[in-house]
Amino acid sequence: MGRGLIAGLVSNLFHVPRVVFQALWLKATAPRLPEPDGPREGRVGQGPLLRLLIVGDSSAAGVGVAEQGQALSGQVAACLSASLTVEWRLIARSGATAADTVARLNAAEPGEFDAAIIALGVNDAKNGVPLRRFLANMDGVAAILRSRFGVGTIYVSGLPPVREFPLLPHPLRDVLGTRTEWFDRELSRHVTHWLDTRFLPLDFGLDVAHMSEDGFHPGPPIYASWARHMSALISVDFPGTGAQT
C-alpha cells in the first residue's frame, strides 16, 4: 500500500461518522435504475467468427441506458461487426461482486468463447471486501472463464473514476475514490500474471454531463467511448478485424 493511499485513508478517518451517515443516506435515497431491456445474446456482422462473452456488474449489464444496444455489449458488438461475425453473450447483474460472479458463472450454461470482457471491482471496493479476497475471486472468475467457457483471451476493464461521480458527496467521494483507485492499480498489476490477458484502464476522460440520471452509471456516450476503446484492444489480438473506431 503506497504512502499516498495510507495518508488518504488516515485523513479520511476523521470523517468516519459523516461518511457512514452519507453512505446510509445514499443507500436509502439514491435512484435505482433498472438493467436495460433487450437480448443478452446475439449474432451480428459479417466475416470471421468471434465468440465474445461479457461478464460483470451493473456497468457490464448496461445500467444507465434504455436498451442493450446502447450498452457495452451492444456497442462492442456493433464496433466489431463491420468485419467480424460477433456471437456475444452477457452474464452480468447489478450489484455483482467478483465472488457473486464466480457463483453466477458456475451456475450458467457453459459454452465456447474466443474472448471475454470482465467489468468488476467497484462493488467489491465500496462494500469493504479485502483487496486480497477480491483479487483471489478475480482469479476464480478467470479460471472459470477458461475451464467452463473455453475463453482464450481475457480483457479486463479497469475501475471507473469514482472520485468524479456527481452522485457522491464529500467526504464519501474521497473515501470511495481512494479505495477504488487502489483496487484499480492493484488489479492492473495482478492480471499481468494471467495468460493472454489485456487490461484496459478507464482513463480516457469522463464528462459528467454524459453520465446517467443517477450520477453513478454511464450514459450512452460513455458506453460508446468504452466500447470503442475495448474494441480497438480486441482488434489487436484478432488481426484484420478492422474494428470501427
Any overview of this molecule?
There is one protein chain. This protein has a 6-stranded mixed sheet with strand order 1-3-2-4-5-6, sandwiched between helices. The longest helix is centred in the middle third of the chain and has 19 residues, at about 130-150. Mean pLDDT is about 90; it is low at about 1-15 and about 240-245. With about 240 residues, the chain is of the alpha/beta class. The radius of gyration is 18 Å and the shape is globular. α5 runs parallel beside α7. It has helices at about 5-15, 15-30, 60, 70-80, 100-105, 120-125, 130-150, 170-190, 220-235, and strands spanning about 40-45, 50-55, 85-90, 115-120, 155, 195-200. α8 links the parallel β5 (about 155) and β6. It contains 9 helices and 6 strands; from the N terminus they run ααββααβαβααβαβα. It has one domain (about 5-235): SGNH hydrolase (Rossmann fold, 3-Layer(aba) Sandwich). About 45% of the residues lie in helices and about 15% in strands.
Based on the model shown, name its key terms.
245 residues; disordered N terminus; single chain; disordered C terminus; alpha/beta; Rossmann fold; 6-stranded mixed sheet; 9 helices
Short description:
The chain is an alpha/beta fold and 245 residues long. The protein has one domain (3-237): SGNH hydrolase (Rossmann fold), CATH 3.40.50.
